[in-house]
Amino acid sequence: MSQTLLEMAKDLVLAQIQAKTLPPDEMHSALQQTYTTLMTLKAQEGSDGSVPVATPEAPSKPVTWRKSITKHVVTCLECGASFKQLSVRHLKDHGLDGRSYRIKYGIPRTQPLAAKETTARRKEIVQRARPWEKAPTFVKAQEEKKREKAAVAQRKKTARAKA
Asked: What's the pTM value of the predicted model, to 2 decimals?
């Protein structure tokens, strides 16, 4: 099991990508950072083969919510888990609701907390079902329009008959 540091760093980064905790586009920087950390650990390694344990401080880069919502998955910005939709139940595990989650990460109120594909599919279903046409107020308004058209047509008929 004599792997080079570069091979070890590669294996660690690939495992993160496969576990979906690391987006593939960040692979290069993660590989460099992991390799640097392994080199540092090797340099700190004592003669007895032990390494003093120091918790590395994770660089806190600003999280962009736009990258967390992709075509097929939406990634929770709290824990990094991927879903088709961020459910109320999942957000409750973090002590949040949809509104507070949006405020915390600066997500617009109109942005769905679901994958783009899921949102598009729902929109298509609604367009096909046309539920607004079944609403009582819509039906009533349509009936009134029909009555108006019938009344106008009747007036035109009587006007032609008199002429």
From this structure: 0.47
